[in-house]
Amino acid sequence: MPWTLPPRPSRRSLLTGAAGAAGAALLAGCTGGGGPSGDGTGIPLERRMREGAVRDSARLLERYDATLAVHPGLAERVAPLRAAVAAHSAALAFPAPAATRSASPSPSPSPSASAAAAAAATPSGSTAAGRADVPPKPAEALSALADAERSLSEARTIALAGAPGELARLLASVAACGAVHAYLLTSTPGAAS
Q1: Angle at 55 between CA 167 and CA 180, to 5 degrees
Q2: 59-79 as b/e: b if 16+ CB within 10 A
Q3: Contacting residues for 171 by C-beta, under 8 A, at least 6 apart
Q4: CB–CB of 63/143 below 8 Å?
Q5: What's the burial of 34, exposed, middle or buried (CB within 10 Å: 0-12/13-18/19+)?
Q6: What is the dihedral of CA 109, 171, 80, 11, to 10 degrees?
Q7: What does the pLDDT look like over 102-157, one tens digit per residue?
Q8: Could you read off the pLDDT of 53-79 as tens digits, one per residue?
Q9: How does DSSP classify residue 113?
Q10: Quick one: how far is CA 10 from the chain centroid?
């Protein structure tokens, strides 16, 4: 019997998985995130998790940028997904303290938010080294992006268990979005779902 690819997940199964991740986030999200780290670094858990998530999103943005640099013909299909990843970086950035926001008439973003915005605004993966990792065929490049999205989505789903309240809910949403991106990157454009 010849080897065949397994069937693609349905939109319903993707949404069911996302709902399960959101449920896990709600169960894990009952803890506060503002307490001490307890690991000797002095950096609160939520800040460390947010900064790590922003770095992960920045690396994913670099992959998108490198792919677009090598395969500009994929821009119409890939650009909306890249824009969503950039929005995830901004959403995951550690928010400025409330006192700073209320004291200043024109709020200035936190250093983390500024770094995330800069990463979202500038293509950072257009170096020759970044391009070397992009497969030469467009379909393979899309598959590689889908693999990166899927891996990050799975890692974020696992991180839900240790994430403080609101961050757990945000990570669940971003992980679900990454799973959808992986599906969209490997699905045939224009096919009915």
Answers
A1: 65
A2: ebbbbbbbbbbbbeebeeebe
A3: 25, 49, 53, 156, 157, 159, 160, 163
A4: no
A5: exposed
A6: -160
A7: 444 444 334 334 333 333 333 443 445 556 689 999 999 999 999 999 999 999 99
A8: 999 999 999 999 999 999 999 999 999
A9: H
A10: 21
Spell out the alpha helix ranges (H) of the chain.
11-28, 45-70, 75-92, 98-103, 111-121, 128-132, 138-159, 165-186
Paired tokens of 9: 């997940």
- DSSP per-residue codes, 71-104: -GGGHHHHHHHHHHHHHHHHHHSPPPPHHHHHH-
DSSP state letter for 34:
-
Q: How many residues does the chain have?
A: 193
Contact 135, 141 (CB under 8 A): yes
Residue 48: exposure state from Cβ atoms within 10 A (0-12, 13-18, ≥19):
middle
Rounded Cα distance, 20 and 159, in Å:
14
133/67 Cα distance (integer angstroms):
9
The 3-state DSSP class for residue 42 equals coil
How many whole angstroms separate alpha carbon 61 and alpha carbon 59? 5
Tokens matching residue 144: 């590689």
